[in-house]
Amino acid sequence: MANADIIRLAFFLGILAVVAAWEILAPRRVLTDSKRRRWFTNLSIVVVDTVFARILLPLLPVGMAVMSHRPGWLPYWPKVILSIIALDFVIYLQHVLFHFVPVFWRLHRMHHTDLDIDVTTGNRFHPFEIVISLGIKMAAVALIGAPVLAVVVFETLLNATSQFNHGNIRIPVAVDRYLRLFVVTPDMHRVHHSVIPRETNSNFGFNLPWWDRLCGTYRPQPEKGHEGMTIGLNDFRNPARLTLFHLLVQPFTGKS
Q1: Model pTM?
Q2: Hey, is 188 helix, strand or coil?
């Protein structure tokens, strides 16, 4: 499990660096808020989330896989691949749940209050949401008896693709049209961060793009275009109220 943590940290830092550089070289949108303030807040949340999750749930999904994996009729490699796909579908369903159940939305909306969207937005989640998500993933791992390798690969991919598809990066339209058949692209996921509710409640996938198409939640483009769309939530537009402290207490204040 120690090696799994090292692998995830290496991918986290590597993808963060690559996408951050890409955002400088080929940005998709002009940023409207202070990048320095947003980066400090979003990366501080990563630290809080990590400490919080480790204290409350020291047995993480990889540990659950070590305990619950059992031999079955399916050969090892097909089981690894199918486990990764199944876990991704669970995360899609979890994401939908966090949008439509009010008590969960109070936690998840912190992610949507970012006034811009870039690589660090992919790490902007309330610590209570992280703990609930870990609990859901651990239950799913135990239920399907996922191999340890499948869980390590899935967790690494989920973190990497979350940073990638939140990136403020420009990908040629022709390439994006093909790429989004296999992975959630930044242009596909950006629609999900629109202030327009029907767009916010679409494109829930983080890694594999198929679930949105199969479940009827896919929306190919924002109606105002990527340069013209407004990012965030209408009720949270004041940057002074989007600091680390305000975000951490946000689920317990204001209207749902």
Answers
A1: 0.91
A2: helix
Task: Show the domain range for 213.
Answer: 2-252
CA distance 102 to 94: 13
For 141, the 3-state DSSP assignment is helix
pLDDT digit string, tens, across residues 200-248: 999 999 999 999 999 999 999 999 999 999 999 999 999 999 999 999 9
Give CA 251 to chain center in angstroms: 18
**Domain total for the chain?**
1
Q: What is the DSSP string of 164-200?
A: HHT--B---HHHHHHHTTTS--HHHHHGGGBSSHHHH
Dump pLDDT digits (tens) for 13-26.
999 999 999 999 99
Tell me if 132 sits within 8 A of 103, measured CB to CB: no
